[in-house]
Amino acid sequence: MTSQQIQILIAMVIYMAAVIFIGVYFSKKANKSSDDYFLGGRTLGPWVTAMSAEASDMSGWLLMGLPGVAYATGLADAFWTAFGLAIGTYVNWLIVSKRLRRYSVRANNSVTLPDFFSNRFREKQPVIMTIASLFILVFFTVYAASCFVTCGKLFSQLFGLPYVTMMIVGAVFVLAYTLLGGFLAESASDFMQAIVMIIALIVMVIIGVAAAGGFGAVIDNAKSMPGYLELFQIHKEGAARPYGFLNVVSMLAWGLGYFGMPQVLLRFMAIRKESELRRSRIIATVWVIISLAVAVFIGIVGNALNNIGAINMDGTSSENVFIVMTTSLIPALLAGFIMAGILAATISSSDSYLLIAASAFAKNIFKGIFKKSASDKQVMWASRIVLLIIAVIAMLFALDEDSVIFQIVSFAWAGFGATFGPLMLFSLFWKRTTKEGAIAGMIAGAGMVFLWKLVISTLGGGWAIYELLPAFIFSSVVIVVVSLLTKKPSDEILEDFESVKNGKGLEQE
Asked: What is the rounded (10 degree) CA torsion for 223, 226, 232, 237?
């Protein structure tokens, strides 16, 4: 191992030690009860709520996937994706957060998403709960795999060690941390990691622009490549290719995913006061806009640096542009702390995915179906066993070194967005939604994601749009049609809806 690699490793070890300290600090509180472990006892403040929601959402995709897309194909794909995500973030915080916080309390103080849907419709047999939990297990396993791929690529690129070995090391660290601290530790560390991520992005874009010869030089380089800086063209194989209306709408559809993202929605449920959500919305939106914009621009800067020989991207994936820029342009020890930005993004997401998936099984399937008399201690043990199983399966999915992070994340994002997004909106804002409509909508959304991705999109042309858009629309239509064709909700369910809508005495201050 070279001197540079040793310095980078030292910096990253220091960072990981800080993360472990947070886990140890919060472990006592987290292990008091399963409610504390899974939702932190609804004690999150506005800053932690906002920053942890966004950090857990963005993952290593923000520092590797998105810059890689901008580096390889130019502005269009990356810009419209980022623009859709920024709009989705703001609208989700604006219209969903307050009512979900309120409704989750009304719905028998729900602590998981399947809990909420089941209690919202007052189901006697846990059908919605079971289906929702199973979909969470499936899609979060895919999501966790994308994080482990990020860990493997990061450490393999930095230290020249085998990808599979480094992927497993990263996965074991994340797993140990998640087992230790639970939701509070995860949220507190996510707050710190959100800060690290945005600092890493800003520092590298400033240094990168300077090394490229200034902002003008970066733009001149981009202009020299056909279609690279266009919003309605894309740069491929040295030429400009059309980027039409359907492409734009397809990428904007990423914003729809937020309405179904458990890792974000749980933060809405966990904040200590409903009145603090407005401040959280401002914080989250500002963070997202800055970080997405800088991540896209890093890809463009990296392309300029590679063309003038300031960095060497030969033989490496475009998703490594942030890593190559960092290790090439700044001192090794500082590079280690910047690299911690990628590690931060990966940890903040994967621990959320593992914890939510485990809670879905332990609270909703193990206790909700198989052993209703299970004690809190048994529920937490079940969650930890499931954590291990999910992590192992995710590691098996992540064995392929050629996996593209952007593609893995986009599929899981579509899965959650189409499965839970329409149902969340209709559950909160349409009182005529029925249990049958909810079940049909979840299955329709998830099924269409698989069908569109694996079959319909292969037809090419206008069919090759992002699967989230058609699946979201299909799920919404199914919820409306099935709800109207089935018996209207009971008076108790309608009373719950109206009470939440009017906000009468439901805030837990």
From this structure: -130
